[in-house]
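<instruction>
Derive structure tokens from the sequence

<record> Sequence and structure tokens follow
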Amino acid sequence: MKTISTNDFIKLSVFFNVAFVGIVFALNYNFCGAAIATDIIFLIGLTTGFVFNGLMMVLNFWPHLLTYKPKMPTKVKDLLPKPKPTTTPAVVANTEIPDITASTKSPYLQPVAKPANIKVAGKDANLYQFSDMRFDFHRLPHILLAGTSGSGKTVALFNILGTIKRQYPMARFVVIDYGNQDFEQTYPTDLTTFLKVTEAMFLIMKGRQLEGKQTDRTRIVWIVEEFESVLGEIKLEPKTAQTAFYVRLANIGRMARKLSLNMVFVTQSAKAEDLNTSIRNNFANRFIMAMENNSLAGALGCNYDVGSLPTGVGYSSAIKAFIKFPMAKEPPLELIPYNDLMRLANYYKVKYNLIIDEDNE
């Protein structure tokens, strides 16, 4: 059914109302006199005006009601790209993607001032101020922050997140805080939720990979506080599930380097053997705060005894030096609601017919 424009609708409505009122007024004036005609025309004109306008609105907007489809929530819509239509199926096998760019040395975290000289457990070392550092989170995207309770790792985390916010003002955040202490908002902190988020990130990365460079992407920053809690629960799962988890996490990290995702994981008591080589290589931007577990510090690339580091000082494996973090509060983070993240992942899954190959998990 063809509909008329708003302007035409208004003109037509005014014309018919004026014409109808004029005709009724003329008839009543001839038979009833001016005073009675005025009262009658007022009542009739008012009634018919409502009836006519209501009828016209129903006729004009009924086709829209028949074809109405509810819009997606604005927050999900903002995240969605506009890829070209495709029907090509893509079976996603959970086998490890070759790592061709992982490195613990990078020019993308560089100081712009000379360091101070300090002693760490009797060994000479360089100390930079965090404000003197220049980050490129596009090319060195993933951060692993390790340190015991009271080491200042939360302060370091807030400094790092503040830097990401300044570099990417429109970034959206996914927060899983197992301690429920450092962030005002967090996703549920259970293994089922974490695994669903991991699968969602995997689907989003595969979808963006299939898109190519068709559109700008909203940067997503995935924060996990007390990552050791996840690792502890994963160890209770069957061996095949453990392998699938580590492979998927590593694949997310590798794809994410070019697909606008930053991973910021924080741990205070993870064991060195739980952070395998593929994870350590993906988290090339590592900061080691004070901790008693020097085996973990060594596995993360720190050859210093960090047990006696002062609060707020951490070792950077990227520049092989220490950094002093100033006091900082949690920056304002715009979180992606959990349900919106699931919708976004499902959008890519349906759009590109993504099928995760469970046989390799």
